[in-house]
Amino acid sequence: MKKLYSAQDPLMIGHLKNVLENQGIDCVIKNTYLASAVGELPPIECWPELWVVDDAEYSGAEEVLEKALAPLESIKKPWKCAQCGEEVEGQFTECWNCGNSRP
Asked: What is the pTM of this model?
């Protein structure tokens, strides 16, 4: 069994588990209830973790995970407004300066 992914949000971990299981990859979530230990343990050590049961499926699971997370990566990147040239943070879909939509 190998650890594939860890995140602060248990809903994200649950979603990714569903995505992997839909592709036939058996996985489990660990640290589901460890959030209550934050303060006694470092917070990142208490995050839920997604583990692939069969080591032979690990590389396939990485590919599925990469595809599932790819849309989120483009949201994080800042973009430049085509109308006014203002640089806008990645989570916004419209320019704060002129209201133009993200390309």
From this structure: 0.69
